[in-house]
Request: fold
Amino acid sequence: MAIPIVYNVRSLGARWTSTVVAVLGIAGTVGVFVAMLSLARGFEATLVASGSARNAIVRRAGATSEMDSSVMLEQVRVVEDAPGVERGGGSGPLVSPEVVVIASFPLKGRGTEGNAQVRGVSLKALTVRPTVKIVAGRAFRPGLSELLVGRNVAASYDGLELGQTVKFGGGTWTVVGVFDSGGTAYDSELWCDYSVLRQVYQRPLNMFQSATVRLTSPDALTSFKDALTSDPRVTVQIDREIDYYAKQSRQLTTLITVLGSIIAVVMGIGAVFGALNTMYSAVAERSREIATLRALGFGSGSIVISFVVESLCIALVGGLLGCIVVLPLNGLTTGTINWQTFSHLAFAFSVTPGLLAMGLAFALLMGLVGGVPPAVRAARAPIAFALREL
Amino acid sequence: MKYLHLVVSNLFRKKTRTALTAGSFAVALFLFGILAAVDGAFKQGVDVAGVDRLVVLNRVSIIQPLPLAYRDRLARIPGVTGVTFANWFGGVYQDERNFFPQFAIDREHYRQMYPEFVVPDDQWQAFLIDKEGAIVGEALMERFKWKIGDRIPVKGTIFPGSWEFNIRGVYRGQRVQDDTTQFWFRWDYLDERKSFTKGLVGWYVIRIANPDDAVRLVKVIDEQFANSPTETKTDTEKAFAASFVKQMGNIQLLIMSVGSVVFFTLLLVTGNTMAIAVRERTRELAVLKAVGFRDGFVLALVIVETMTVAVVGGGVGLGLAKLFTLRGDPTGGLLPFFYVSPKSIALGLGLALAVGLAAGILPALSASRLRVVDALRRI
Amino acid sequence: MVSIDGRGDGKSLIRARGLGKTYRRGGEEIHVLQGLNLDVDAGDFVAFMGPSGSGKTTLLNLLGGLDVPSAGSVIVAGDEITHMSARKLTAWRARHVGFVFQMYNLIPVLTAFQNAELPLLLTSLSKAERRRHVETALAVVGLGDRMHHYPRQLSGGQEQRVGIARAIVADPTFLLCDEPTGDLDRKSADEVLDLLDRLVRDHGKTALMVTHDPLAAERARIVLHLEKGVLVEALSAGRPQSPAPA
Reply:
């Protein structure tokens, strides 16, 4: 029969300052760990969600993003005729050619300007992306300097609320509508008529940066892709929208994940040292009790298990505390430059159940590593000596 | 110093505990070092920015070019002592993941504009002769193990096609923070081969005679080109670099938060450990007092012990951080430089000492105030 | 019947033969016990006395399986414990020995009831059965009304009685008491000694006690002195006599 767990729980309470310290050490580590990973996860999720499985992006072969790509009008026509393209009754082939540029606007609260991605489209862009919904105002009217902005734009920049006018590119634009794309990269973009935008940026007529295509089904991608890559009239690369955005997020996600992991591992080592210190002190302070238990006949096994359990209790409480503290971060929006598109991207911390579980597992691992060596020492100290220790 | 053995023997009495406490300091200061390096990497652009240089961009957008014709007009503005320009190339070397910055530079004036970058004369001459020549930064050479004379193929993205360059020289930075991860080639070669934006440059860099004149000159330059088809937006190099850091958002907030969490926890752990250690030695400390050592002595003894552990542990941690940064950038190219400056090390040691002091002071005070009689009676 | 000449009959409960224990301290060898013999029958109450450092506690530790001798053997109720593995020794202790310590050695975060219950956790008794035993033991030592108090809420004498309750709760083969009254005032000491007396006389327990206290020694049936590593019998309290010729 094992040593009753009430002994461990009460002992933790009796030395509550040390217990609290160890708990906080683990809580801090788990909190930082989960926070950093949810930052990376949030960034990645925003970008990945931007893509639809049924959409494909067509860019010039060799381009690394939309901005350094160019697709001419004739090539767009070829794309429209390719197999697999959805022809939505009435509106013709669902292919949206788009002009993508950057414009700077003052960032709210940062005291500097940020680069916003401006997408020149036709109204077909909304049909190609059915998850995008206009939630305030209306779409822009073709031929006018009107902006339809993503829901994060007003929050990220000064002067881009519904109804406001803003100057950029030598013209005056009015924000006439706000759209919601469900927490994707589009929510940080400004949309307008592509012919107006092309003029402002002095781009050649008939040149776009990309074309977004809605396919008849996710599987149609293969035939669509094969047809176009073997067509001599066009040199394009075709990606499923989801894959395109996944690649986009890679750089920053890597940075955050690498740095976050280094920090978390190092903090974990520190937390383990803290737990070890606490447990070793506990064993030292309770050496007479331990010797008594062993004298009474409790074997080394139950002593070891008892102390490991005690350490795991500390770890569990610490892990839970760390997770609870970090939970409010979920959904908190922040923003940064996406280095691959050079534009400002708003995203939210994403604290998923999976990450919380990882945090708890990490905590328990620390508790285990921090508990075993002191427990073994407790079980191996010579009994007779410990009994007499004054 | 005659009491040194007292301090040392006390620290060695419970080796595991001393090691663990020192270890906690080492961990915290290691993190401090890494965070300082990351912070430094982000701020690097700001740090190295020349105080006497301005950057001129297209007002509409950073990706829009400027006419070459502006060069002479800029050079004629009073207060301006030098003008050069460059273009971002953004090509891919073998794999998208092998990112490094590539600039098409003005071969006539670029070198003088950046005196912090040093290229041996003969190498620069070779660059001037070879249209397909390239000058490569020291760190970049090291990263891909290139040698002078290598022919480097780069796939153009903004300017499509396969481009190849011959490495004609290496540039070195004079300071540790200088970015030597860049790849320079000739703008005239780019302009010749590219199919659009001919006669257009990415941005201008201007040297001014007097750094205090910067604010006025920024206005003068922008006014020159206001209401023209291509308006400009001018900034000091420092402000330009700083804006990027700000756009990256609350990186500093993040770093400060993590740093604070780490130190707070460290303070807690070591304070607690030291308090326990002092409690255990109540009787001995009381004996010291009984023998005749004063309260102040006991206080000093405890504090010296805690600070010794702090400095030793902290020193090890900072040393490890320094070693880690010598390995280079852990993110494989995203950070232009990753380095722990001597200033950071000094700051770190100072913090360790402060924490050691703070953690030890309460137990030290209680130890110094022990009444001998009580202490000897306490079991 | 207690004998120290090594010629006791095979029926003794506790038998030590040629027991020796040597410590190494700083390069020197210290022989605490040498060639010690002891026979104790069931129902005996033996007190061990001797100067500080004579090895009384060492002897107790060897008899109780808390330590291993450098030479000789210890046989209790037919079991040779000298060469038992650590694990077997632990199990053996649980079954056969009831310890009473000078400092009581109660676990401060457990109640009197829970402290006394500890040895029973090593058996397969059900919770209800355990409770019965504990309540009986605490009643025997006269603490039935303080079952749920914590050690810090008890006086020294009461704490020691909880210690004794813990020692008898699993009905061990014999009791080992190391200076049981060493930390108590006279009145509490007397109460504890009365209790030990009763346990031996009325409940047939076997008790071996190490003590400094001559009044405690008086309560025992036999007082043995430990001198120079061997046992000497005292015919009258406090005065040793040399052993009978071997």
